[in-house]
C-alpha cells in the first residue's frame, strides 16, 4: 500500500486529529523541551501540527493501534522540503529502530514521488544520539547554519537528493 509502511506490529498511516492529540498528551520529554524553546504553549503547538492533517506526507506511526510518533514533511519552496517529528517515550525504547526504518522508507518514497532537491530538519536541541538518528536517516548537519530563536541556537540537518536534472544540463 503506497503511503503506508509496516514492520511487525508497527504501521504508518495518514495523520489524524486524534493521533495528534494522543501524542501531545503523551509527548516525550525531548519533544516538550524543544517546543518550549520556541516559547509557545503546548496547545498552540498542537494546533500548528494539526495543520498538517490531510497533507500528502503526514503520518502517524502506530504500535498495536496506539500512536507512538507523528511525522511528515512539507514543501517550503519548489523542490525544498522541511520535516517534522514528535513522539512518545515508546520511541526511545523498543520501537526506535522500527520507527526510524519506517520514517526513512517514507522519506525516500516522498523524495522520489515529488522529485525533491533537498529536505531539511530544524531542531532546537541537539545531542549525540539525536545527531546519530539524523545521520541514520541520511541527513548531514549544516555547520554553517547560524540562527537563534528566543536567544537559543537552532540546528539544521539536510539531505540533498540526486534528481537526475543535472544530468540533462
Could you characterize the architecture of this molecule?
This protein has 169 residues and is α+β, with helices and mostly antiparallel strands. The chain has one domain (6-168): Gcn5-related N-acetyltransferase (GNAT) (Aminopeptidase, 3-Layer(aba) Sandwich), CATH 3.40.630. The chain is built from 6 helices and 10 strands, in the order E-E-H-H-H-E-E-E-H-H-E-H-E-E-E-E. Helix 1 runs antiparallel to helix 3 (42-50). The longest helix has 18 residues, at 96-113.
N-to-C span: 35 Å
Gyration radius (Cα, Å) is: 16 Å
Arithmetic mean of pLDDT: 88
Structural class of the helices, strands and pairings? alpha+beta
Which word captures the global form? globular
Q: The CATH topology is what?
A: Aminopeptidase
Number of helices: 6
Per CATH, the class reads Alpha Beta
Give the full name of the CATH homologous superfamily: Gcn5-related N-acetyltransferase (GNAT)
Q: At CATH's second level, what is the architecture?
A: 3-Layer(aba) Sandwich
Q: In total, how many domains does the architecture comprise?
A: 1
- Most strands sheet: 8 strands, mixed
Order of helices and strands: EEHHHEEEHHEHEEEE
Low-confidence stretches: 165-169
Give the strand line-up of the largest sheet: 1-2-3-4-5-6-10-7
Amino acid at each position: 500500500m503506497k503511503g503506508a509502511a509496516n514492520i511487525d506490529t508497527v504501521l504508518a498511516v495518514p495523520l489524524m486529529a486524534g493521533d495528534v492529540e494522543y501524542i501531545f498528551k503523551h509527548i516525550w520529554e525531548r519533544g516538550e523541551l524543544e517546543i518550549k524553546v520556541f516559547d509557545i504553549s503546548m496547545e498552540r503547538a498542537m494546533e500548528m501540527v494539526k495543520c498538517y492533517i490531510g497533507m500528502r506526507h503526514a503520518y502517524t506511526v502506530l504500535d498495536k493501534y496506539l500512536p507512538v510518533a507523528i511525522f511528515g514533511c512539507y514543501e517550503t519552496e519548489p523542490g525544498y522540503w522541511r520535516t517534522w517529528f514528535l513522539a512518545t517515550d515508546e520511541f526511545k525504547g523498543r520501537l526506535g529502530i522500527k520507527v526510524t526504518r519506517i520514517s526513512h522508507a517514507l522519506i525516500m518514497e516522498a523524495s522520489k514521488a515529488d522529485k525533491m532537491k533537498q529536505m531539511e530538519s530544524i531542531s532546537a536541541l541537539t545531542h549525540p544520539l539525536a545527531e546519530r538518528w539524523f545521520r541514520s536517516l541520511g541527513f548531514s548537519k549544516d555547520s554553517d547554519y547560524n540562527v537563534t530563536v528566543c536567544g537559543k541556537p537552532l540546528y539544521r540537518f539536510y539531505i540533498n537528493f540526486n534528481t537526475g536534472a543535472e544530468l540533462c544540463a
